[in-house]
Design goal:
Number of helices: 10
Number of strands: 9
Order of helices and strands: EHEHEHEEHEEEHEHHHHH
Strand content: 15-25%
Largest sheet: 9 strands, mixed
CATH architecture of the largest domain: Alpha-Beta Complex
Helix content: 40-55%
Length: 315
């Protein structure tokens, strides 16, 4: 049984295109769960009308009592899914034909895979493919091969997008609803859990069009005053990251991974301490951790290190 979890919020511009692309898959899905995070536009009504007009008794809509943010909203949708395999879907993307069929075939052929992602195109507001787009930090293989992703490579960073993945129900109890909205996200946690409980992999086939536009929920915060709270947000993001990595530390029995997680947690706590105290000596001490900055932030170490200084002292 295939379930699809959709987290919706003010998605009236594109959500119908997404729903149509899910409905028209060559391998039909068995269940769709849409969790609306208190939209203020017509998202909820459009979804209800679509479901009624298509006679989709196995598609369900839930509205949150209060706005919880996209990360917790996805956890809520996942919790309501009952399928053997759960796909995640953003409200404004477009699934390519054959997505479910190809990913389910890959899972059947590779029973060791707990979480499976795929390649994708990036499209603009007019559904035009943007040049030089796709999964960052991966090679140019688009040959239907399977590429495994280690937990070690994901410590401190998230480079697999949630809209591109699906996972087996067996890891669902391990997906603790940790809010990671500021720096990492729910997709990072799912992929890490997959790598610990089994394997996380990428199918080197383009199966989704990811829409990049000014109103992407995952690219924005709901607070219009976010520019005034950058330091607080940076600290919060680091604290969320420490919380998430600490949880993973409790899951794994791999000593090498435990060592990597512990090292990262210590590093992030040092950054938090500087940002909270604004002690310049603590900042200079972080200069000795540029290797860690580069490792965890994919070669952008100097930039992130300077960013900590900027956020700490910006008025």
């Amino acid at each position: 049984m295939i379930s699809v979890a959709i987290a919706a919020y003010n998605g009236e511009r594109f959500i119908i295109k997404q729903l149509e692309s899910i409905l028209n898959q060559s391998l039909p899905v068995d269940e769709v769960v849409i969790c609306d995070d208190c939209s203020t536009d017509n998202t909820l009504e459009l979804c209800r009308r679509f479901i009624e007009e298509k006679g989709l008794d196995n598609w369900h809509i839930f509205k949150n009592e209060s706005n919880v943010g996209y990360c917790l909203n996805f956890y809520g949708a996942i919790e309501k899914c009952v399928g053997d395999v759960i796909f995640l879907a953003d409200q404004d993307d477009e699934w390519l034909q054959g997505k479910t069929e190809k990913m389910m075939k890959c899972l059947k052929e590779n029973p060791d895979i707990s979480v499976l992602s795929s390649r994708y195109n990036v499209i603009d507001e007019n559904s035009k493919i943007m040049e030089n787009s796709g999964v960052t930090y991966l090679g140019g293989n688009y040959d239907d091969s399977v590429e495994y992703v280690s937990a070690e490579s994901q410590v401190g960073c998230s480079y697999i997008r949630g809209f591109s993945l699906c996972f087996r129900k067996e890891i669902k109890p391990l997906i603790k609803p940790i809010d990671l909205k500021s720096l990492l996200s729910h997709d990072w946690l799912i992929c890490m859990v997959g790598s610990i409980a089994g394997k996380t992999a990428i199918l080197n086939t383009v199966l989704t069009n990811y829409r990049f536009h000014s109103q992407n929920v995952s690219l924005l915060t709901a607070d219009k005053k976010r520019e005034e709270r950058r330091l607080d947000k940076r600290i919060l993001g680091l604290e969320e990251s420490v919380n998430g990595h600490s949880y993973l530390l409790s899951l794994t029995e791999d000593n090498a991974l435990k060592a990597s997680l512990k090292k990262f947690i210590v590093f992030e706590k040092k950054r938090i301490e500087f940002l909270k105290t604004k002690n310049i000596f603590k900042y200079m001490a972080l200069l000795g951790h540029l290797k860690e900055y580069n490792r965890y932030y994919k070669g952008n170490g100097i930039r992130v290190w300077l960013g900590d200084l900027f956020y700490a002292y910006k008025k």
